[in-house]
From TrEMBL:
Keywords attached to this entry: Plasmid
A Pfam family that the UniProt record links to this protein: DUF1540
Name of protein: DUF1540 domain-containing protein
Domain DUF1540: 9-50
UniProt source species: Ruminococcus albus (strain ATCC 27210 / DSM 20455 / JCM 14654 / NCDO 2250 / 7)
Length: 57
């Protein structure tokens, strides 16, 4: 939703429902988490706000 857009958040995941114009995140908030059991020793993250678009539209 455009009114909820957080300015300055870029995303390359084009199949997310929150992605607009191929690089803009329109989610009202985002949650990013570490993928490792010890987040202090890991450089991998995942966007927990991601929601796949309906592929049959």
């Amino acid at each position: 939703m455009e009114k909820d857009k957080i300015m300055g958040i870029r995303c390359d995941v084009e199949n997310c429902v929150h992605n607009q114009n191929g690089c803009e995140c329109t989610a009202g908030s985002i949650q990013v988490c570490s993928t490792c059991s010890d987040p202090n020793c890991c450089d991998e993250t995942v966007c927990r706000t991601f929601k796949a678009q309906d592929c049959c539209h």
